C-alpha cells in the first residue's frame, strides 16, 4: 500500500516572502508605522529565515530618516495597562503620558517585551519619569531605539503565527 505524503503547509515566512508587495508592506506597517521601513524590507525579499529578516528589520530601523521616525512615532498607540490596574494608576499614567506628549510632541514608546504583567506599570511610569528629563534631541534616539525593539518583537510574533503584530506591545 502506498502512503501519500501530506503536502507541507507554507510557513509564515514563506507566505511573507511570496505575498504581493502591498500585502507584505501592510504586515510590516502593523509592526512599525514607517512606509520607508516597510518598503525597504519588502524590496529585499525573500529572506532565507526569520533571523535574517529580523536582522534586516533591525538595520532598517537604525536607518530611519527623521521623517520616517516621525511617521512611525505618530502611528504608535500608547502601551496598554492590564484591565485590573487601579484607577489611580490610570490617572497617574494618563498625566505622565500627557506631560511626555506635550514635551516631545509624540506618544511615549517603550518595549515591554519580557516583563511580567504586574511589572509593566512600574516600568512604564519609571521610563516616562526618567525620559521626561531628556532634551528633545536626546529623547529622539531613545524613542527610536524603543521603536526598533517593538518592531522586532512584533515582526517575530507575526511571522511565528502569533497573529497581528500591531497588538504585541
What does this structure look like?
The protein has one domain: UraD-like, CATH 1.10.3330. 63% of the residues lie in helices and 0% in strands. It is globular and about 50 Å long. The chain is built from 8 helices and no strands.
Key features of this structure:
single chain; 63% helix; UraD-like; disordered C terminus; mainly alpha; 169 residues
The SS-based structural class is mainly alpha
Q: CATH class, anyone?
A: Mainly Alpha
Please identify, by name, the CATH architecture. Answer: Orthogonal Bundle
Please tally the helical runs, counting DSSP H or I stretches of 4 or more residues. Answer: 8
CATH H-tier superfamily: Oxo-4-hydroxy-4-carboxy-5-ureidoimidazoline decarboxylase
Measured by DSSP, the beta-strand proportion falls in under 5%
Distance between the termini: 51 Å
Average residue pLDDT = 86
Radius of gyration: 18 Å
Spans where pLDDT lies below 50 across 5 or more residues: 1-8, 162-169
Total beta strand runs: 0
Question: Could you spell the SSE succession in H and E letters?
Answer: HHHHHHHH
The largest sheet, given as strand count, sense and whether it forms a barrel, is:
none
Amino acid at each position: 500500500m502506498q502512503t501519500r505524503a501530506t503536502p507541507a503547509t507554507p510557513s509564515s515566512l514563506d507566505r511573507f516572502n511570496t505575498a504581493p508587495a502591498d500585502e507584505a508592506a501592510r504586515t510590516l506597517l502593523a509592526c512599525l508605522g514607517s512606509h520607508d521601513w516597510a518598503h525597504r524590507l519588502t524590496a529585499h525579499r525573500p529572506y532565507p529565515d526569520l533571523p535574517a529578516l529580523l536582522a534586516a528589520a533591525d538595520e532598517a530601523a537604525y536607518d530611519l530618516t527623521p521623517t520616517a521616525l516621525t511617521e512611525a512615532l505618530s502611528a504608535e498607540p500608547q502601551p496598554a495597562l492590564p484591565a485590573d490596574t487601579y484607577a489611580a494608576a490610570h490617572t497617574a499614567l494618563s498625566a505622565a503620558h500627557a506631560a511626555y506628549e506635550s514635551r516631545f510632541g509624540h506618544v511615549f514608546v517603550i518595549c515591554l517585551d519580557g516583563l511580567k504583567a504586574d511589572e509593566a506599570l512600574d516600568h512604564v511610569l519609571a521610563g516616562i519619569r526618567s525620559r521626561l528629563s531628556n532634551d528633545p534631541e536626546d529623547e529622539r534616539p531613545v524613542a527610536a531605539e524603543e521603536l526598533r525593539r517593538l518592531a522586532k518583537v512584533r515582526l517575530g510574533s507575526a511571522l511565528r503565527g502569533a497573529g497581528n503584530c500591531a497588538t504585541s506591545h
